[in-house]
């Protein structure tokens, strides 16, 4: 009994010193470990990340961070992380998690809870911190936020005396006419069957006034009418040709390049595509606005990246120190200025100097604040696979819209309420 009490006391002291257990209480192994760490995250397509990491390395020569770039696609990133964590590997110390993975990784015991008091959550955009909370515990630190935007060729619209579309009808009309006149694609999003397609479809459904699941993913709340309207909009674009066939193979990078290279009039993408376009031949010829919806501005899916600590890391104290630094004000500003990624600190969106340099910041802030988070569930990956597979079949015109919607509702029910 004495040995047990001593062991328990040691565990509590280590956890308290490291600041890695929240007030609710779960602790993790190796919380006092220091030394070189690795940061596993998706591929850095804008080449902004290494210079930021160098800032840490220059001031922490005994605790350098090494970047481990995973694939670009979120699904593939998750697969590699899960394989590593299921093997209890200590190769990854800090994990760059898509905001939708929090519940799954926490529920599986792959990441450790963090002390809320060491992070300035009150300085972050409303709703952003919630993406890192599961069952009232903080499991990661918000690093970037995200919301989909509509990129459009402002030079073409100006020449045609058109305002950027606010509704689907306007987008359909402009994309159809301008595509034919200028011999380029009308509109594209991320339509390959992966997480990106789930996001695009969810945005369409909520922009039509619907919802797929309740926030806790315990019930399928999918309104058949709104879902049918949303899918009709996307499928109609393919059938009518203003969504080009090649867009069915696009992920984020393919759609970014298609727009940047002048092959599209309109494109749905994340804000990170803005910076590269301003340094291309398209500079001065494009702008961004909120996604259009059925009757007015639509609603984006809330995206972003959170930084978590692997439960199997042997250097969790260094990992925590790195995350605190990397989510702090200095790096948050550079995340925007060097990477074109939306920071999580609210004050940066109202900075006059930044707005002058990035005129889209007010629009982006509106998009983030009006965005909806994806359902919080450890089974989110399975939910996403069901949605992307069903929607892909409809976009490829292999299954009618009505049948797709009915089947999708049934399949989601089997995932969310098995045996119910």
TrEMBL record:
Pfam name, any one: SBP_bac_1
Signal peptide: 1-20
Keywords on record: Signal, Transport
InterPro entries listed in its UniProt record: Bact_solute-bd_prot1 (IPR050490), SBP (IPR006059)
Source taxon at top rank: Bacteria
Family from the record: Belongs to the bacterial solute-binding protein 1 family.
Protein name (Swiss-Prot/TrEMBL): ABC transporter substrate-binding protein
Provenance organism: Planotetraspora mira
Organism classification: Bacteria, Bacillati, Actinomycetota, Actinomycetes, Streptosporangiales
């Amino acid at each position: 009994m004495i040995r047990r009490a001593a062991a328990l006391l040691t565990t509590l002291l280590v956890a308290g010193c490291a600041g890695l257990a929240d007030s609710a209480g779960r602790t993790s192994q190796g919380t006092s470990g220091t030394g070189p760490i690795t940061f596993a995250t998706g591929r850095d397509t804008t080449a902004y990340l290494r210079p930021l990491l160098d800032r840490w390395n220059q001031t922490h020569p005994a605790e350098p961070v090494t970047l481990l770039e995973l694939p670009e696609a979120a699904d593939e990133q998750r697969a590699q992380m899960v394989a590593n964590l299921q093997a209890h590997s200590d190769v990854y110390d800090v994990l760059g998690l898509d905001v939708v993975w929090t519940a799954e990784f926490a529920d599986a015991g792959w990441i450790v809870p963090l002390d809320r008091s060491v992070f300035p959550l009150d300085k972050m955009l409303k709703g952003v911190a919630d993406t890192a909370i599961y069952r009232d515990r903080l499991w990661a630190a918000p690093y970037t936020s995200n919301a989909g935007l509509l990129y459009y060729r402002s030079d073409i619209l100006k020449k045609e005396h058109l305002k950027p579309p606010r509704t689907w009808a306007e987008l359909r009309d402009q994309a159809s006419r301008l595509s034919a006149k200028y011999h380029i694609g009308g509109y594209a999003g991320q339509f390959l069957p992966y997480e990106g397609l789930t996001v695009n479809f969810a945005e369409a459904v909520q922009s039509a006034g619907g919802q797929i699941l309740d926030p806790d993913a315990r019930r399928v709340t999918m309104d058949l009418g709104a879902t049918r309207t949303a899918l009709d909009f996307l499928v109609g674009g393919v059938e009518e040709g203003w969504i080009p066939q090649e867009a069915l193979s696009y992920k984020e990078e393919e759609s970014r390049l298609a727009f940047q290279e002048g092959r599209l009039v309109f494109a749905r993408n994340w804000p990170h595509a803005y910076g590269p376009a301003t340094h291309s031949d398209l500079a001065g010829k494009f702008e961004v606005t909120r996604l259009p919806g059925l009757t007015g501005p639509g609603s984006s899916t809330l995206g972003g990246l959170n930084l978590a600590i692997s439960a199997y890391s042997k250097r969790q104290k260094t990992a925590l120190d790195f995350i605190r630094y990397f989510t702090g004000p200095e790096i948050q500003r550079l995340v925007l200025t060097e990477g074109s990624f939306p920071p999580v600190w609210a004050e940066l969106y109202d900075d006059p100097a930044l707005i002058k340099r990035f005129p889209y910041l007010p629009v982006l802030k509106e998009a983030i604040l009006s965005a909806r988070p994806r359902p919080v569930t450890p089974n989110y990956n399975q939910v996403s696979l069901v949605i992307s597979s069903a929607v892909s079949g409809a976009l490829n015109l292999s299954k009618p819209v009505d049948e797709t919607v009915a089947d999708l509702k049934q399949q989601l029910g089997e995932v969310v309420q098995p045996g119910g």
